[in-house]
Amino acid sequence: MCCCFLFRCATIQLDFQLPIRFELEYKGSKDAMERPVMIHRAILGSVERFMSVLIEHTGGKWPFWLSPRQIAVVPVADNYFAYARQVRDKLHAEGYYVDLDDSSKQFPKKVREAAMAQYNYILIVGEKEQEAGTVNVRLRHDPEHPYEKKMDDLLVELKDVVAKFQ
Fold this sequence. Notes:
Layout: E1 11-15, H1 17-21, E2 26-27, E3 33-34, E4 38-42, H2 47-58, E5 71-75, H3 81-93, E6 98-100, H4 107-116, E7 121-125, H5 127-132, E8 134-139, E9 142-150, H6 151-163
Parallel strand pairs: 5-6, 5-7
Antiparallel strand pairs: 1-4, 2-3, 7-8, 8-9
């Protein structure tokens, strides 16, 4: 992710209040005591300003390593909830943020809602995936090209994605 937007966060401020609060003084001209003015600088400004600029810059599409909605597991039907829970638990045990949609909504609506929520990975599980021990992976940045992966291979892929930003 490009950090070229960070220049909008920096701030330099003159502070007249902290020197009063800390009772700061210095000996000025003619040996008179004078109150200084403090100059603050903040590379990222306030946390609120930084977050608002980051959200605006990414359009809410957080990079995987930062996203609070990394992975959504979506079972095709009720009878695959148990396998979907296994997938969720395995990913969660590895330290990823994983949500499972085990609602009674229809499958297309579950996938659409996960996509609208900007999950980085949407993992579809059904009969074929359950038998093979795989998941059908849909990426937020490339939803038109889903692919199937074994769970162990997916974990390696996720670790590689995170490692790129460390």
